[in-house]
Amino acid sequence: MRNNQSIIDNLTGQLLIASPNLNDPNFYKTVTLICENNAMGSLGLIINRPATNSIEEIFNELDLNSVNHFTNVPIMQGGPMGSERGFVIHKDGHYKHTSKINKQFNITTSRDILEEMSSGNGPKDSLLVLGYAGWGAGQLEDELKTNSWLCAPSDDNILFNTPYDSRWEYAIQRLGININNMSNEIGHA
Fold first, then answer.
1. Among residues of the chain, what percentage have pLDDT more than 90?
2. Hey, which residues does 57 pair with through a beta bridge?
3. In the predicted model, what is the mean pLDDT of the chain?
4. Which CATH architecture has domain 4-52+68-87+128-181?
5. 60, HSE (Cβ side, Cα atoms, 13 Å)
6. Which of 3, 33, 106, 166 is the least crowded, having the fewest Cβ atoms under 10 Å away?
7. Per-residue confidence at 121, pLDDT binned at 50, 70, 90?
8. Are 76 and 49 in contact (CB under 8 A)?
9. Which three-class secondary structure string do you get for the chain?
10. Range with lowest mean pLDDT among 37-46, 78-87, 132-141, 172-181
11. What pLDDT is recorded for position 65?
């Protein structure tokens, strides 16, 4: 098992799983993909909380044609900050503003990926997210030290195949943890 400092030093591409005792309404029972972590702070996208917007609303707002296979695709509310900012997490393809998160995932913030998706030619696996979660320098690392979060390697099955309302439980189970055995008090097993 990796030591705690190793995990803290390598948060980019990791999943942050809210501990059951994390009662902040912005993060209660969330799973967050960390897209960037450096000396200036961290940026993550919550991947299990649906936004109130529909894909049709977003595509209409951007004057894009919607295709039928997107009608039931939920958009995730990525965090309490920048709700007007859109992100697409995907595995393959490169677009105008694409950044690599890790070997598995990319993140794109440009319109061209949405144009491709609306025409049915976008990436096979993708997740649309509005807004993001941000932490100042050292803030997320401090929260990890107080056991507010569990940390796990990213998993494309969680991001693209697991129903959003099951992602929190599934992510914890992947760590081999029985939720019923977890204490509601920080720092206690």
1. 54
2. none
3. 85
4. 3-Layer(aba) Sandwich (3.40)
5. 6
6. 3
7. confident
8. yes
9. CCCHHHHHHCCCCEEEEECCCCCCCCCCCCEEEEEEEECCEEEEEECCCECCCCHHHHHHHCCCCCCHHHCCCCCEECCCEEEEEEEEEECCCCCCCEEECCCCCEEECCHHHHHHHHCCCCCCCEEEEEEEEEEECCHHHHHHHCCCEEEEECCHHHHHCCCHHHHHHHHHHHCCCCHHHCCCCCCCC
10. 172-181
11. 73
How far is it, in rounded angstroms, from Cα 157 to Cα 170? 10
d(CA 152, CA 1): 11
Tokens of 174: 């992947």
Q: State pLDDT tens for residues 106-119.
A: 999 988 888 888 87
